[in-house]
Amino acid sequence: MPKARVLQHSQYSMIRILGILGSPRRGGNTDFFMEKVLSHLNKSGFNTNSLRLADLDIRPCNACNKCYKTGRCIIRDDIDKVFKEIKLSSVIIVASPVFFLGVSAQTKILIDRSQSKWVEKYILKKTQQVTKTKKGIFISVRGGKGMEVFKCIEKPVRAFFDVHNVKYVKGIFVDGIDEKGDIKKDKMAIKKASNLIEGFISFKGGSFYGTV
Ligand SMILES: Cc1cc2nc3c(=O)[nH]c(=O)nc-3n(C[C@H](O)[C@H](O)[C@H](O)COP(=O)(O)O)c2cc1C
What we know:
Blueprint: E1 4-6, E2 16-21, H1 29-43, E3 47-52, H2 67-70, H3 79-88, E4 91-97, H4 105-113, H5 115-123, E5 131-141, H6 148-163, E6 166-174, H7 187-201, E7 202-204
Parallel strand pairs: 2-3, 2-4, 4-5, 5-6
Antiparallel strand pairs: 1-7
Helix pairs in contact: 1-7
Flavin mononucleotide binds at residues 23, 25, 28-31, 97-101, 141-144, 177-178, 180.
């Protein structure tokens, strides 16, 4: 049985947490969940940051395969800013609503543009394996009922974390949330957000999301 370990408050500020907002709907359900988690963690002393994909200029992968030679994408846009933040952070939280049984277009573009990272890792073998120190969390909500779709959309997000050498540790999924703000009235969603916050502050064995 692993011993329970508690992160000291003085160590919180060393943990840089990046929230990647994948919904185009400002103030929508995934935003609300992420905001609740990040603002609480920030008040607790963690170093938090967020990026809203819809506000950035990130063009889709055009499959030119130029990255196969260099491990670098030839498109110069805000993707560099996102990759830099991912590199600097110890915890990366990606949040996307379910759109047509997939992630949002903004989130998918980010994932596809990570092809250069896949090349870097698996073709050019330049980067390290997934480290235990960088952790990834995926938050998703959907309007319809049922959890099976989340298993499906989790797969590209897992692959995304893998190419960035981030260990995927947790998926948090809420169904039956459709109108903007519905999530605020959903007790289960609020509980899931509180559990996630709690997970950063006290943890057992390897279950902590931000161990450095
Ligand atoms: C373009 C579009 C496609 C959607 N497709 C689905 C879907 O396939 N399954 C589902 O359960 N909900 C679907 N929804 C509903 C959203 O998942 C739901 O409204 C969610 O709460 C939006 O989250 P947000 O407020 O963070 O943007 C779709 C919504 C939009 C706008």
